């Protein structure tokens, strides 16, 4: 059926015609040079080619026609383009880059096309899409090309997360009767989801439907993810249930997306039923699905059920990874059961799973919560042997542990070590330190900590400040308390003024 008639039947305006533009045919010296250069090319006589082109000047017109002569051999055409781009950059124009792109996409060399687009000097400019699209349009007929070149441009912008340009290319493609393939649309949907633009992703999916671009399982997975991000669990379930009608079979990602969403909403029984249905459908739950379920149960304090899933995954031959062990160790730490956390850690080492800084932080926090600061300090010394470095969370746990034991001086040493390592304390760390000194009656010892906190422009918890000021007043330091109080008010006023500006 004629393309214009088909578009009209579908309710769309007829497409804009492709311009009837062609590159003038070479004559005289141009024709001679192009023929000689092509001969050297097909015989791989690069030194001779270089000499001829340097002597008789390689113009953009000549470069374009040499590329057109090499169209049947996309590898050779790319070699020549790279050669010209390196040695004769003045011979490369927008149209030259479009010609090589047409040649590569016509031969389905899409990875090469993507690389060529990203190498284009104007690709990264904010409004490059009109110029690149028009250049492809100008050279379309001369290259006897297909819609794939425009599809490659759309996909390149999508993968680069250049959403404005991708949308512009999509609109222009539609105007000329071209549509991107579903894999390019999926790249756009996934890029939008990755940048938390779920509403835009769903709007684009609806546009895909209007354009009759048939979705595949990867499309529907992205749509489900977008619905879940927006809290529309029922809509995500509807998409899942409609997969079969759309000719798609749910895969591990399809099930995993719904399992994660149900766990996030505390619907753990339904999440487990989905995992069971997943197995019944012939889709094996992988380590990611089990990790999501185990984390969901641990978050709700149901560690026994989490352990049952842990044993089940091992029985099914799904090897736990560092994330699995970290979830369980952290859960035991939150339960003040560091002994069981240690057992999980020992099993982890026995299974050959390498711990990371999150593993050690979970163990350290568990020990500190129980006041076992010596064990926690021993783990910190072990970090270096493992090639790991303590981070802010490590020091926060150590400071918390010492503050709970009212070892304010040791907590302060960890604070100084934290600063020395380039880690940044948060307001909780300052609050713990100030409170620890106050509980020990060392109100003057807390003053430098408060000043450091103010110097970092951090908000001060009112209860902590009141505790310090009252303590200073009781110990005969009323003037210092008044001075600090004025400084706190001045800092808070300055911060409010900045936010108001």
From TrEMBL:
Alphabetical list of PROSITE patterns matching this protein: PPR
Cross-referenced NCBIfam families: PPR
Transferase among keywords: no
PPR repeats: 146-180, 216-250, 251-285, 286-320, 321-355, 356-390, 391-425, 426-460
Similarity annotation: Belongs to the PPR family. P subfamily.
InterPro entries in UniProt: PPR_rpt, TPR-like_helical_dom_sf
Keywords, comma-separated and alphabetical: Repeat
One Pfam match: PPR_1
Protein name in the entry: Pentatricopeptide repeat-containing protein
């Amino acid at each position: 059926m004629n393309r214009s008639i088909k578009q009209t039947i579908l309710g769309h305006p007829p497409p804009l015609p492709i311009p009837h533009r062609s590159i003038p045919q070479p004559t005289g010296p141009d024709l001679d040079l192009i023929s000689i250069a092509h001969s050297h090319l097909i015989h791989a006589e690069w030194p001779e080619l270089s000499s001829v082109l340097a002597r008789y000047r390689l113009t953009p017109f000549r470069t374009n026609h040499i590329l057109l002569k090499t169209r049947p051999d996309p590898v050779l055409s790319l070699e020549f383009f790279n050669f010209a781009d390196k040695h004769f950059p003045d011979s490369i124009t927008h149209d030259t880059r479009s010609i090589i792109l047409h040649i590569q996409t016509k031969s389905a060399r899409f990875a090469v096309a993507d690389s060529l687009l990203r190498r284009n000097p104007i690709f990264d400019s904010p409004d490059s899409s009109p110029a690149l699209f028009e250049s492809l349009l100008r050279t379309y007929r001369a290259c006897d090309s297909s819609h794939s070149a425009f599809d490659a441009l759309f996909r390149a912008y999508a993968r680069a997360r250049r959403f404005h340009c991708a949308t512009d290319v999509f609109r222009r493609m539609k105007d000329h009767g071209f549509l991107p393939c579903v894999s390019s649309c999926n790249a756009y949907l996934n890029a939008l989801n990755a940048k938390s633009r779920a509403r835009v992703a769903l709007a684009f999916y609806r546009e895909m439907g209007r354009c009759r671009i048939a979705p595949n399982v990867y499309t529907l997975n992205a749509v489900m993810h977008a619905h879940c991000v927006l809290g529309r669990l029922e809509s995500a379930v509807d998409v899942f249930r409609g997969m079969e009608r759309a000719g798609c079979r749910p895969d591990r990602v399809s099930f995993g997306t719904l399992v994660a969403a149900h766990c996030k909403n505390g619907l753990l029984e339904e999440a487990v039923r989905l995992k069971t249905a997943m197995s019944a459908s012939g889709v094996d739950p992988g380590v990611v699905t089990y990790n999501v379920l185990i984390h969901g149960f641990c978050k709700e304090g149901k560690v026994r059920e989490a352990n049952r899933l842990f044993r089940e995954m091992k029985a099914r031959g799904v090897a736990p990874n560092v994330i699995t062990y970290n979830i369980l160790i952290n859960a035991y730490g939150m339960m003040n059961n560091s002994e069981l956390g240690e057992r999980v850690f020992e099993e982890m080492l026995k299974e050959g799973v390498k711990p990371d800084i999150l593993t050690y932080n979970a163990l350290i926090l568990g020990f500190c919560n129980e006041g076992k600061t010596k064990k926690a300090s021993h783990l910190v010394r072990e970090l270096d042997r493992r090639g790991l470095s303590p981070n802010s969370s490590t020091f926060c746990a150590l400071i918390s542990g010492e503050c709970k034991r009212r070892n304010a001086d040791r907590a302060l040493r960890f604070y100084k070590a934290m600063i020395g390592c380039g880690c940044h304390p948060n307001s909780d760390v300052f609050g713990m330190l100030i409170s620890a000194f106050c509980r020990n009656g060392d109100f003057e010892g807390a003053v430098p900590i408060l000043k450091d906190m103010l110097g970092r422009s951090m908000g001060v918890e009112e209860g902590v400040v009141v505790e310090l000021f009252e303590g200073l007043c009781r110990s005969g330091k009323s003037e210092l308390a008044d001075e600090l109080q004025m400084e706190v008010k001045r800092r808070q006023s300055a911060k409010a003024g900045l936010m108001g500006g």
